[in-house]
Amino acid sequence: MIRQNDAVAREAGTLTLEQARAMARAAEGKAVENHTSVAVTVVDGGGHPILVERMEGAQLASLTLAERKARSAVFYKRPSSAFEQALAGGKMAVLALPDAMPAAGGIPVLQDGRPVGAIGVSGGSNAQDEMAAEAGMATLPAAPGPN
Predict the structure, then answer these.
(1) CA angle, 75 then 8 then 145, to 5°
(2) Tens digit of pLDDT for each residue in 48-63?
(3) Measured between alpha carbons, how far apart are the two ends of the chain, in Å?
(4) Which pLDDT score is estimated for 141?
(5) DSSP percent split of the chain into helix, strand, coil, nearest 5
(6) pLDDT for 146
């Protein structure tokens, strides 16, 4: 799920630290439900970390993987799972794309079609990471619908 959202960012056009904290809490809560320990990274629209957290018991590599998933999502304006699916479909060129991470768990936040941030989660299976990232995204206010 990509969250197209005009209400997310303040004037700076990026996620706030408060929003990043709420996203991380929700993602970690979903990880607990799934009996996993994860690392969560929330990045701004330029792919720079706003917040990085690692749950007790999460492997150290998950810190790097969560950031790579978030950066992939914000740089390409699509979930990192899109690259995982492309690779599974035989599109080996995905491996040559700079900063593309072919593993689910990274989801961008878009404002007017422009990336203002992303969340990346790593530590469980790719499906569990994606569920945790979606829980984080659910904390953001929904974009207003057409009247």
Answers:
(1) 105
(2) 999 999 999 999 999 9
(3) 22
(4) 83
(5) 40, 20, 40
(6) 43
**Amino acid code (one letter) for 74:** V
Looking at residue 12, its pLDDT comes to: 53
Tell me the whole-structure pTM to 2 decimals.
0.88
How far apart are the C-alpha atoms of 73 and 2, rounded to whole Å? 9
What distance in Å separates the CA atoms of residue 32 and residue 3, rounded to the nearest whole number? 23
- The per-residue DSSP string of 25-36 comes to HHHHHHHHHTT-
d(CA 17, CA 110): 17
CB burial of 38-72 (b: ≥16 within 10 Å; e: otherwise) equals bbbbbbbbebeebbbbbbeebeeebbebbbbbbbb
